[in-house]
Write a structure and sequence with these properties.
The complex is a heterodimer of chains A (114) and B (112). Chain A has no helices and eleven strands. Chain A is mainly β. In chain B, the strands form two sheets. In chain B, strands 2, 4, 5, 6, 9, 10 and 11 form a seven-stranded mixed beta sheet that branches. The mean pLDDT of chain B is 97. Classes of the chains: A mainly beta (114), B mainly beta (112). At the A-B interface, strand 5 and strand 10 of A face strand 5 and strand 10 of B.
């Protein structure tokens, strides 16, 4: 069974940083394309980042809204991906989901507020 | 970015009724490999989204055949035959043909 579990969310002040982790199991992680998608009442569902497998030199892609501030990474030995979020803004407030193909994690809430 | 327009925004249905949801994209969703990467998701209340249908018409694992997807190019439809209580929630279409991937705004299915 495919499982994806996000951790690391919380309340953070604008301009600060936060790192999310997505631990996975139940599929061949090393060859998987992994994504982060976020959801907020204001913007709905928004794809924000993707990391491809080692065969692509771990190529990454980002939405314009987070490019230069967020960094996606992966550790194949731990079947996990990460999202380092820097220079957070109030508009980054959302539930963040880790996704792979048709599978979604349960999500983790990030609130950016002073 | 490709804009995904879903209609209607909400639907009020009775159990056993059949319903259809439309999704139109601002560009063709046919990829260079000939496949169309249009998918349907359901987000049940308090839950994360779950993919129901992938590539227009393929049912996800464990998805009942009351669900069906049709369409091509820029015009797609999700049909639910004989709605059951567990089908209530928000339905989203999503495209992964073009970068960046984009989602519709959702159609909320409620009980009449």
């Amino acid at each position: 069974e495919v499982q994806l579990m996000e951790t690391g969310g919380g309340l953070v002040q604008p301009g600060k940083s936060l790192k999310l982790t997505c631990a996975t199991s139940g599929f061949t992680f090393s060859t998987a394309w992994m994504n982060w998608v976020r959801q907020s009442p204001e913007k709905g569902l928004e794809w924000i980042a993707r990391i491809k497998p080692k065969s692509t030199n771990y190529a990454t892609e980002y939405a314009e809204s987070v490019k230069g501030r967020f960094t996606i990474s992966r550790d194949d030995s731990k079947s996990s991906i990460y999202l380092q979020m820097n220079s957070l803004k109030e508009e980054d407030t959302a539930t963040y989901y880790c996704t792979r193909g048709g599978g979604w994690g349960q999500g983790v809430m990030v609130t950016v507020s002073s | 970015d490709v804009v995904m327009t879903q209609t209607p925004p909400s639907l009020s249905v009775a159990i056993g009724q059949s319903v259809s949801i439309s999704c139109k994209s601002s560009q063709s969703l046919v990829y260079s490999d000939g496949k169309t990467y249009l998918h349907w998701l359901l987000q049940s209340p308090g839950r994360s989204p779950k993919r129901l249908i992938y590539q227009v018409s393929n049912l996800g694992s464990g998805v009942p055949d009351r669900f069906s997807g049709t369409g091509s190019q820029k015009d797609f439809t999700l049909k639910i035959s004989r709605v059951e209580a567990e089908d209530l929630g928000v339905y989203y279409c999503a495209q992964t043909t073009h970068f960046p991937n984009t989602f519709g705004a959702g159609t909320k299915l409620e009980l009449k």
